[in-house]
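User: Hi! I'm working on a homework problem where we have to compare a predicted structure to a textbook description. Could you give me the structure for the chain below?
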Amino acid sequence: MIDGMSMVLGEPGADGLSGVVGVLRAWQYEGAPAQLHPGDLGWFWRFGAEATAAAVRTWSRDGQVLAVGLLDDPMLLRLTIAPAARQDEELARRLAEDMTEPDRGVLPGGKASVDTPMGVRVRQLLEQQGWSAGEPWTPLRRDLTEPVQDPGVRIEVIGPEQAHVRAAVQRASFDGSTFTDERWHAMAAALPYADARCLVAYDDRGDAVAAVTVWSAGPGRPGLLEPMGVHREHRGHGYGRAITVAAAAALRELGSSSANVCTPSSNTGAVATYRSAGFRRLPEIRDLTRTGPPVP
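Assistant: Happy to help. Predicted structure tokens:
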């Protein structure tokens, strides 16, 4: 924990993760920035509670959490800020300092990236220090006010007995995936998974062809798809659309106000799949990247 005037940078520890999840839930609303959802912590939790806690940073003032960051990898911080604090000057300056100085334990020196909401004060400060826009990402959203159509294929909700099926589809969908049965169980035992579902789509022969995990932030709040994948041997048959429609239906059943997802804009196939499933493309967002040492 690092104190600076009234601002405190901290790590929650495994025992404090429930508080962070609660904060992130409270910050979700229609139109909220896409940077960090309780489901993002839930998906990271596949590595275990201790690893998740070690990847989380919080910034607090007078005991109130104002910003939460998740180190998706050691050089990428996904940062979100309390709605009322996005232009807070003291917070913005502290965030910029902590992300710039390696000894603060947030980001290393040299190459690094920060995924932070567009238009917030800290983003302006980082740009002034030489950080530049990174690759574009496309957020997509589907309103869940109305019932969702039938996906057209058999969909199963995965429980502990089928964890191996969900894990196998994940590995067959993403090159280099390390998802295993054990990691599914670690994720499913975590607090965010109480409001989540894993779905698998099957073809007419009974083969598992696509999978998705959906995360609710509570009734009346936006839900998240993270991740969605189609088995590499079954692509081009509409299974991506089918599992995405099923994901939207599952989130509606959980009480979510909308279904949301974010994908690299360069992945035009994924963008097309989500749009075919009734998702509306939102304005692109970009992270900030530093390619060299911090600017003094």
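For your comparison, note the following. The first strand starts at residue 2 and ends at 4. DSSP finds nine helices and 14 strands in the chain. Good luck with the assignment!
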